[in-house]
Amino acid sequence: MSRLAQLNSYLRLARHRTGSIWLGDDHLFIVARSGFTEKYLRIALKDAQGIFVTSTERRTLWALPAATVACFSAIALGVTWFRGDRPYISLPLLLVALIGLAVNLMMGAGTRAYLLTRVQMLSLPAMRRKGPAERVANLIEEACRRQPVPASGP
Asked: Which of 19, 74, 79, 149 is the most buried (most CB within 10 A)?
């Protein structure tokens, strides 16, 4: 099989600045990035025993700064309007903060995903929000089910 055909047989399941997850015929290929380095892992699907998606406080941590800016700019907007001035700074700040809060809400809850094998539990990169993480976990679980069951020895 040519190198190009081999590359085309992978399906990218997830991508993020921290890494990516690729599904091959009988294995997962995980790329974990940190700064200027990359770490590559090849995990056979027959070795996977479970995949777990857990909730984190990511949504709250991203919402706190936006909510703080929204509160202060709303107060400044009220004071500015009360004095009869035009809100040149507070209104745009309030709109940006509210858009940030809306985007954070639409992206869904923060998650962290783990793959359990016979010898280790791996943190999977690129699975940061609940919806995409659950879809990727279902694809990996489905691929694991399609693997042939090894014949037992004598």
From this structure: 19
